[in-house]
Sequence to fold (664 residues):
Amino acid sequence: MRITCLLAALCVPLCAAGADDAKSVFDSLFAAKIKAVSATADRDDDVTLAKDMLALAKTSANQPALVALLCDTAHDLGAKHADGYVAAAEALTLLADTVEEKKPAAREKLVALLTKQSTAGKPDEREPAGEALIDLLVVMGDEKVDGRQFIEAVADYRRVVALATQRKSASLDDAKAKLEFALSRDRTMKQLVRLQEKLLKDADSATAEEIVKLYVIELDDPESAKAYLNRVKDETLKTLVPLAAGAVDQVSEESLLKLGEWYKSLAKDPKSPQAAGVLQRAKTYLAKYLETHTAADLGRTKAEVMMKEIDAAVAAAPAASSGRTVSRREVDVLRLVDDKKDGMAGTTMSRGRLILTGTVKVWARVSLPVAMTGAYEMRMVFQRTAGNDDLSIVLPAGGRHILHVVDGWGTGTSALHCGGQRQNLAIASGGARITNGKVHTLVIAVVPDEKGQVQIRSQVDGKDLIDWSGRIDELGMNADEYPGHPGNPAIRNSSSTYVIQEIKIKALSGTVEPTEHLYATPRCGGWGGGRFHQLGPKGSMLVGFRGTAGRLVQSIQPIYRVGTKTVDGTLVRRHPDTAFEIVAKEGYAVGAINYSTGNFFDGFEAVFMKVKGDRLDPNDSYKSSWIGGRGGNNGTFSSDGAPIVGIHGGTGADFDGLGVIFRR
Fold:
């Protein structure tokens, strides 16, 4: 009742003040209350008021200035007493997540508060506060690594190591690996500065080549290395570095094999810290080569042998860490999830936990921003708090998506889904595996091979659930059901509420790496044909298409733009029909696609929108000419101003269907 009254009171002042005078609104609601609680020695009224402010802040996300005042004051009131530490910490977390310019200060306050709570808080809150403090410092360090602030990251990781040692935390080994990585990168950056200064004084090719190799091997940044190629003599560097700087999907089969072999040769000492990243790059190119090059020839044999040699070298190497990736190539996925960018329905992040609330009509769906190559293991800690329906995990493998259902169909049955009307495989029955209110641990191992086979094993709370081996193409899911970006795992559920406490993915072979926050629309047209998906170069936007079309669209090739440079994507299907090309004028990009489809992709037109920073302006747009036929049903792909960065779909004897991928 108290919060309802506050919300009602809030509406009038905001409307009257034009939502600009947050301080006036805040004072009108709370100045008298703050004065009243400050005049008493009763700690309960401080904590109660802090909770009221926090509750109001949660409903005021569209008023960041008001949120800042509410959260700052809620922290100040709650932090006075152990009873209010939880509310104070939640207020600071909300502030950091909601008001970007307040994030650094809010996090520093949160570090101080969690430190106090872990030592002087309520006995049952000290251990969780200590772990939360470790998690926060790791996130802060990881973000600094992402921004190449390595020496600043070192300070955070050192605090983590000290805390983890003191608390005998399981995260100690990972913290030490992160600290060593940040120290190593800091040394590399200092060496790079010295070489750049030397190159300014004496522009010799040897120094330039050393700089290029530092960028490629130590920093995994071939894009930055390109700036120095005009000063090197090594033809291999001149040829392969630009290819490595582009998207994998844009590299030819022949070059994929060359890049894989070259990166493998750069890992001269497989046990060195930088070797892990170099070998991961080699595996990425070789895996893509084996995916596209199906002929049983010497090239394929060579790639398979190199893959086995790399797997052996990686298995024998010591644990490594890079940025957000922890030892043994494990990623803490939950730290990467942004519910506003990755969630499609029914998803909320709260205090580091992912809450999925699905209904019969609207499934809760979230894409996980991480990509894997090779075999991997997913570990998820979760609790079902309401309902009795399943938890479904979307697992990528061999270019397909596999749907692993736990406690499904209201019968306690778990299975691997096959898509369409085909019978599910590896059914595990025998009663519900999920108990409401109980914390469960789900572990799934996915082990694909180069021959199109896959083994999937899963356990709940240490008890076997699924153990299945067979061809990858026996499994799948309906293409229109996939809730995310091709290549990323995902979670979905209906008619239940799940609280996900932890998601970690570990590479058993190959790689596991964070990705951008991307979303793929369902494809339109038919569902037949082999699946394809491709992304443009890093930082690019889709600006057009070329291809062939008659009554139907027969082939398509995306066109991207990075700055002022136009880059061609990969041609999807060759067909001798009428050629077309539509490209946005300078300063515009594709923001929507109007289409007509039936059993195939009949025709379409692009809607070009004005580029404004990293977004598109739907209010400043124009249309291309219509391509192909107008049969079937009409529809629109719209990114609502987010840039389109790739395409996906299906193609075989015909061009079956198309969807787009946009950056959220």
In short: The radius of gyration is 27 Å. Residues 3 and 234 are 69 Å apart (CA to CA). The first strand starts at residue 325 and ends at 326.
